[in-house]
Amino acid sequence: MATVHSFGASPISCHAWSSSRSELALSHNTKDVTLYSAGRGGGGWTKTAVLDQHDLRVTGIDWAPKTNRIVTCSSDRNAYVWVQGPDGQWKYTLVLLRINRAATCVSWSPDENKFAVGSGAKIISVCYYEKDNDWWVAKHIKKPLKSTVTCLDWHPNNILLAAGSTDFKVRVYSGFIKEIEPKPSSTPWGARMPMGNLMTEFSNSPNGGGWVHAVSFSGDGSKLAWVGHDSSISVADATKEMMVMKLRTDLLPLLTLTWLSDRTLVAAGHNCVPITFNLDTAGSLTLGARLEEDKKQEESGTMSARTIFGNRDKYGQSDLT
Q1: For residue 144, cis peptide bond before it (omega within 30 degrees of 0)
Q2: What is the strand order of the sheet 70-74 is part of?
Q3: Helix, strand, coil percent values for the chain (each to nearest 5)
Q4: What strand order describes the sheet that includes 23-27?
Q5: Cα separation, 29 vs 76, whole angstroms
Q6: Which residues lie across from 129 on neighbouring strands?
Q7: Which end of the chain is less packed: N or C, by CB atoms within 10 Å?
Q8: Within 10 Å of residue 198's Cβ, how many Cβ atoms?
Q9: How far apart are CA 285 and CA 119, in angstroms?
Q10: CA-to-CA distance for 221 and 69, rounded, in angstroms?
């Protein structure tokens, strides 16, 4: 059953949930991040804090479930790590990403000892805390990135990092930081994992292609899924020689996706409804069910003129016969 949460009339550009799902951090397409807390019994949301250090629009938020730290990034080319003190106040630490274009997305690693930030500078900054100097250090992944990084996702092993970009590519890199973690063991994605090493690359461009909007590793880390602006969803399987399964849909472009199980994904986008996709044992990717039904149903068996024109406009059709 779907639950609707309302936070005013202003658009929400990015958000992140706390581990308990009782708190929410979001940006109303501004330079500030507002924190909300849910009332008991679902009795509405209360504003609890405003994180206001950025100079330009906030583009990414991630809330670490174990350490309860929030990381934010912005078009001002900086990131901040926010830690809640004993008094309940949020203290910030500036992280210099060393990029000359806007940051676009941010993601904590599973162990929460580092985070990655994508940017319009054709750079991924992998940031970790250096205890000796009491600051956050950013290491760069550059090659062979050729355009803006739009999305990121960490592998469950805390080392591999998937990135999608506007050059229609999905890449898997090593995000290994030798200063803070032991040497990683081999995976189906490869065995050699120095920092920034390109493990593999996939193209979303065959038969049209489009920008990559979201990437997501499966729970066991053996598969990687992504959605593109060409209304497609793809899954690569590292255990089957990097075989890629792609499904072109008649939906509007999907913007986000996640794995529900090793065989089921859920995605959502401009159709304004979550939709499931199924991956069978033979490797075939099929469209599943809508998780929400349209609220308004036609009272009669014939569609109204407004509905007909609306549907044709939605799919770019000009023939009205």
Answers
A1: yes
A2: 58-63, 70-74, 78-84, 90-96
A3: 5, 45, 50
A4: 14-17, 23-27, 33-38, 45-51
A5: 14
A6: 136
A7: C
A8: 14
A9: 31
A10: 24
Six token digits for residue 180: 């803070």
Contact 257, 216 (CB under 8 A): yes
Helix (H) / strand (E) element for 309: namely helix 305-314
Residues in the chain: 321
Which parts of 97-148 are beta strand (E)? Answer: 103-108, 114-119, 124-130, 135-141
pLDDT by position in tens, the chain (length 321): 567 788 888 899 999 999 999 999 999 999 999 999 987 665 689 999 999 999 999 999 999 999 999 999 999 999 999 999 999 999 999 999 999 999 999 999 999 999 999 999 999 999 999 998 899 999 999 999 999 999 999 999 999 999 999 999 999 999 999 999 999 999 999 999 999 999 999 998 766 678 999 999 999 999 999 999 999 999 999 999 999 999 999 999 999 999 999 999 999 999 989 999 999 877 789 999 998 765 444 444 455 565 666 666 655 555 544
Tokens, residue 29: 């397409």
